[in-house]
Amino acid sequence: MIRYTSSIEKLIESFMKLPGIGRKTAQRLAFHILEMPKEKAEEIAQSILDARNNIISCSVCGDLTDTDPCRICSAKDRDPSFICVVQEPGDIMAMERTRQYNGYYHVLHGVISPMDGIGPNDINLRTLLTRVSENDVKEVIIAVNPTVEGEATAMYISKLLNPFGVTVSRIAHGIPVGSDIEYADEVTLAKAIEGRRVI
Known about the structure:
Blueprint: H1 6-16, H2 23-35, H3 38-54, E1 56-57, E2 64-65, H4 71-74, E3 82-86, H5 90-97, E4 104-107, H6 126-134, E5 139-143, H7 148-161, E6 167-170, H8 186-194, E7 197-198
Parallel strand pairs: 3-4, 3-5, 5-6
Antiparallel strand pairs: 1-2, 6-7
C-alpha cells in the first residue's frame, strides 16, 4: 500500500491529536494547509505558538488569559456575590453570550470521573473554597455539562460548600443531556440560567 510522505503523514497524525478530528478530516486539513501560501501557513503556525507561549491560567478563576488576573476577574462592575462554576474555559464565553449573568466565574478544568481516574483533587476545587470563604459570596451557580460526571461533581461541590452557608444552585436542564455548554445557543442557555435550582 502506498502511503503519504513522512512529512504529510506526520502532519495528518498531528491534526488527529485534536478532539473530534478523525483521519479523513485530518487529511483534508493537512492538504488545505499544504495548498495555501507559505506565509499563511506560517501565520497559523505562529499564532499557535504565540497562544501556547502567552496564555496562562488566571490565578483567581482558572480561565485562560494573557493577563493575571483575567479581564473578568479584574472587572469592577460585576456582582461579587455570585460565582458561576463552569467545567471548561470555553464555557465562560457561552455564558457571557446570554447577557443574563453579571457575576464572576470559576473554571474547574474538568469534572470528577472515577472511571477516568479523575478525583476531586484533580480539578480546580481548592481555590473555589478559598474564594467562597474569603469573599462575600451569596450564591454559587453550578453550570457544568449535564452528564453523569457533571451531576456527580455538582453534588460534590454542593456538599463541600454547605458549611459556608451560601446558596448553591444548578442551571436548569434546558440543555440536552450529554451535550456541551460551549455549543448551546444563547436562548437555551438564558432559559437554563433563569430556571436554575438549588441543589
